Amino acid sequence: MNKITTFFTTLCALFGFIAISNAQFPEGFETGVPPAGWASFRGTNNLGTAYDWTTSAISNSGSQAAYVRYENVTGGLAEDWLVTPQFTPDASNNLLTFMQRQSYTSNYGSVYTVRVSAASQTNHADFTILNTQTENDFNTVYAMKEIDLSSYEGQTVRLGIHCVSNDSFALMMDSFKVEGTLGL
Predict the structure, then answer these.
(1) What is the residue-wise DSSP string for the chain?
(2) Mean pLDDT across the stretch 82-92?
(3) Predicted TM-score (pTM) above 0.70
(4) Could you tell me if 126 and 119 are in contact, meaning their C-beta atoms sit under 8 angstroms apart?
(5) What are the backbone dihedrals phi and psi of residue 146, each rounded to the nearest 5 degrees, phi first?
(6) Would you say the C-alpha torsion 21, 127, 161, 46 has a positive or negative sign?
């Protein structure tokens, strides 16, 4: 009887872990920003203390989206991070998709990157750039962005959105999913 109980407990723990590890997707920010398990923080220079990631009613779906706005700072650029909980891409779930838009048509020189970390959720130096976007890469209407995660299949990772700006730019993101299979 003890072996059966141990076996059943192990199976439940294994399947429970699998369900928990992918529970953060899809994410539509309906419960706030950052949602449970996500992290929001500033860059190493700690500039831009007035506005951090928050919610916006200008959403792609549902009633809210993640939103970060410009700040007028001196001595450098404001940096804002929004980072997912850890998850493990696999052959069936190796494509990050999300909807993105900005508020202004002018190009102020702001940049945001999608980064990956296999080590930490909040250590800036642990993240590697996967994709870079400038204000010229998207506009004031929500559009889908896709990021290939196939080279991270089987690895436990976190994805970070890193915005860099000064007195410009307002970025909205919504409908985060890890799904699909590349090449189909």
Answers:
(1) -HHHHHHHHHHHHHHHHHHHHTTT-SB--TT-SSPTT-EEEE-TT----S--SEEES--SSSS-EEEEE----SSS-EEEEEEPPPB--BTTB-EEEEEEEES-SS----EEEEEEESS-SS-GGG-EEEEEEEGGG--SS-EEEEEE-GGGTTS-BEEEEEEEESS--EEEEEEEEEE--TT-
(2) 94
(3) yes
(4) yes
(5) -120, 135
(6) positive
Residue pLDDT, tens place only, 46-65: 888 888 999 999 999 999 99
Contact 58, 142 (CB under 8 A): no
Tokens of 29: 């920010």
CA neighbor of 72 nearest in space, from 170, 165, 139, 179:
165
Per-residue pLDDT of 145-176, as tens digits, reads 999 999 999 999 999 999 888 777 789 999 99
Cβ pair 131, 173 in contact under 8 A: no
The angle subtended at Cα 177 by Cα 23 and Cα 25, nearest 5°, is 10
Q: Which residues pair with 171 in a beta bridge?
A: 68, 102
Neighbours of 108 (CB within 10 A): 15
Is residue 99 within 8 A of residue 144, CB to CB? The reply is yes
**161 close to 82: Cβ distance less than 8 angstroms:** yes
